[in-house]
């Protein structure tokens, strides 16, 4: 059963070890802190999220294990920043969907850098 459980959630061991450190960081900076891992399909999967003490009220929280567009979060943008332009063209759709009023939907690079 333990082996089957690890197959169902391959990140459980990493998350249980990382969560205290994530919480310590969240408490120190009073912000939300997430842990994401790359997926085989060149995506990013959120595996853990903790909140600093100042987070109050209703806010949109990401769901653990749910896949989000690569252009729609700071973690995923950091991932994209390390990729070659050719790989970006393969991974990103031609039209980027806005998920908030601040979502970047245009390629910010100058035309000659693309």
What would you say this structure looks like, in words?
The protein is α+β, with helices and mostly antiparallel strands. Helices cover 35% and strands 11% of the residues. The protein contains 4 helices and 2 strands, in the order H-H-E-E-H-H. The chain has helices at residues 2-8, 12-29, 74-81, 85-91; strands spanning 33-38, 44-50.
Give a short summary of the structure.
This protein is an alpha+beta fold and 114 residues long. The chain contains four helices and two strands; from the N terminus they run ααββαα.
Shape: globular
Taken as a percent bin, the fraction of beta residues is 5-15%
> Major β-sheet, in short?
2 strands, antiparallel
Instruction: Estimate percent helicity.
Output: 25-40%
Could you tell me the number of beta strands? 2
Whole-angstrom Rg:
17 Å
What value does the average pLDDT take?
75
* Strand order, largest beta sheet: 1-2
Q: In terms of per-residue confidence, which ranges show pLDDT below 50 for 5 or more consecutive residues?
A: none
Note the run of SSEs as H and E.
Answer: HHEEHH
Structural class label? alpha+beta
Q: Tally the helices: what do you get? A: 4
Distance between the termini: 50 Å
